[in-house]
């Protein structure tokens, strides 16, 4: 994830064009004394401990950011969760600020609202995190497991004497002028309403923000391989550039995919790149695995053209970590969702997708540590890709089709964007 600030200047006669000529690219300004490896400016492929150093490096950039804002003086500056100090700095310069939330409304409404921690000196317990906060909408979003609640405790921990994530978010939520979610009432209505009551300030919606179709074409080697298989038969498995499975999970996942009998494209990452990642990949795979699946399975480490792959006609299933942007890409491409959330908001997203929207299936896991076995992978894949005429697979496909049609409705998307622009203009001109 790359953390950026966006300044918005409203012209009296705006022409809402976006191109290279209207975008100013600022040079990298992370301080070299922050303890980060050379040339690191985003969290992709970073181990967790280094990711925390990236936050501290961003905190040290306040003088540079202040200088830039003084020079550019936008009407509004948009920021993400990493810049908790930005609203106070912008206010000092007479600039409005709006947090552009990169997480789902449902996840934030469960995890990061004032009612989650009413006493600032008393963080919630693991048992507290298994339950929704007071006033949370009554939905089927239940069943948080012990290992998931334990993972949520990260939000309340301090690293390198910096403020915890929960404290960062509460700080900027109190001081910013508005919060923006790339969501819509049709998708997350009850959770959006709950957030409005909790935050006590304007909550603006950008709509579902369906990604534009990718430019260019799929790399020839991947296109040629995918072309060998029938329509909707391939399972694409990718957990993104910031999620890493351990060797036990990789073995169970790999053998589970093998047991399905379906072709698959498995992408694994390890917090490193190049030869180091390749060596870790080979060491993590079950003995003889590549040879056994060579006619129908590809295993890769590193970046791939995910949107192009999901759009290929042979890809019919997407086994993933429940990152919301990736899920949207899959839904609009008719890919069935098999969910294995790994951290934070992903656990809530997965419950929402599988139990509320009912557009996918979550892989069964052990309560205490999140372990999943090869049969758990097989059973989840069978539900949405093999037993398609049985329940619950049939209903899941019907719900998936309904939401695909909604997400591809350009009129809805345009309406939300137009409303957002008007709301931002009104915010910019408030006294």
Descriptive report:
By secondary structure, the protein is of the alpha/beta class. The protein folds into two domains: 6-210 and 410-428, Rossmann fold (3-Layer(aba) Sandwich); 220-407, Glycogen Phosphorylase B (Rossmann fold). Helix content is 43%, strand content 11%. It is built from 18 helices and eleven strands. The protein has helices spanning 48-59, 62-72, 86-92, 105-111, 126-129, 146-152, 165-175, 185-199, 220-226, 247-260, 275-284, 289-293, 306-311, 324-332, 345-356, 374-386, 393-407, 410-428; strands at 6-8, 76-79, 96-101, 178-181, 203-205, 234-238, 264-267, 297-300, 315-320, 336-339, 360-362. The strands form two sheets. A six-stranded parallel beta sheet has the order 8-7-6-9-10-11, sandwiched between helices. Strand 10 (336-339), helix 15 (345-356) and strand 11 form a beta-alpha-beta unit. Helix 4 runs parallel beside helix 8 (185-199). The longest helix is centred in the C-terminal third of the chain and has 19 residues, at 410-428. The chain is globular and about 65 Å long. It starts with 5 loop residues before the first strand and ends with a helix. Residues 13-20 have low confidence and may be disordered. Pathway: Secondary metabolite biosynthesis; terpenoid biosynthesis. Keywords: Transferase. One of its GO terms (molecular function) is UDP-glucosyltransferase activity.
């Amino acid at each position: 994830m790359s953390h950026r600030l966006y300044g918005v200047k409203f012209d009296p006669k705006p022409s809402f064009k976006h191109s290279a000529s209207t975008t100013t690219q600022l040079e990298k300004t992370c301080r070299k004394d922050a303890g980060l490896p050379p040339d690191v400016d985003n969290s992709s492929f970073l181990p967790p401990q280094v990711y925390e150093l990236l936050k501290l490096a961003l905190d040290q950039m306040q003088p540079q950011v202040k200088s830039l804002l003084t020079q550019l003086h936008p009407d509004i500056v948009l920021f993400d969760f990493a810049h908790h100090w930005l609203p106070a700095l912008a206010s000092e310069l007479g600039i409005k600020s709006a947090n552009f939330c990169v997480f789902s409304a449902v996840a934030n409404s469960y995890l990061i609202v004032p009612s989650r921690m009413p006493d600032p000196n008393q963080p919630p317990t693991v048992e507290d995190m298994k339950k929704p906060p007071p006033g949370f909408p009554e939905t089927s979003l239940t069943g948080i497991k012990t290992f998931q609640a334990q993972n949520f405790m990260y939000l309340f921990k301090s690293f390198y004497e910096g403020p915890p994530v929960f404290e960062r978010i509460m700080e900027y939520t109190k001081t910013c002028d508005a919060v923006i979610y790339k969501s819509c009432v049709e998708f997350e209505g009850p959770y959006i309403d709950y957030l409005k009551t909790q935050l006590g300030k304007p909550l603006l919606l950008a709509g579902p923000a369906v990604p534009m179709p990718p430019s260019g074409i799929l790399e020839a080697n991947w296109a040629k391989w995918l072309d060998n298989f029938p329509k909707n038969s391939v399972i694409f498995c990718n957990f993104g550039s910031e999620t890493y499975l351990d060797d036990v999970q990789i073995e169970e996942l790999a053998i589970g995919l093998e047991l399905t009998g379906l072709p698959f494209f498995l992408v694994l990452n390890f917090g490193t790149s190049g030869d180091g990642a390749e060596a870790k990949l080979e060491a993590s795979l079950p003995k003889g695995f590549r040879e056994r699946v060579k006619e129908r399975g590809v295993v890769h480490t590193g970046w791939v053209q995910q949107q192009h792959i999901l759009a290929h006609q042979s890809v019919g299933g997407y086994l993933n970590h429940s990152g919301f942007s990736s899920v949207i890409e899959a839904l609009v491409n008719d890919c069935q969702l098999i969910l294995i959330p790994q951290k934070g908001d992903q656990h809530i997203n997965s419950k929402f997708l599988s139990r509320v929207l009912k557009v996918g299936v979550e892989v069964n896991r052990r309560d205490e540590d999140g372990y999943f076995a090869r049969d758990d992978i097989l059973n989840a894949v069978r539900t949405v890709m093999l037993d398609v005429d049985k329940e619950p697979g049939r209903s899941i496909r019907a719900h998936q089709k309904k939401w695909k049609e909604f997400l591809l409705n350009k009129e809805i998307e345009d309406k939300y964007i137009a409303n957002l622009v008007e709301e931002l203009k009104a915010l910019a001109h408030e006294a």
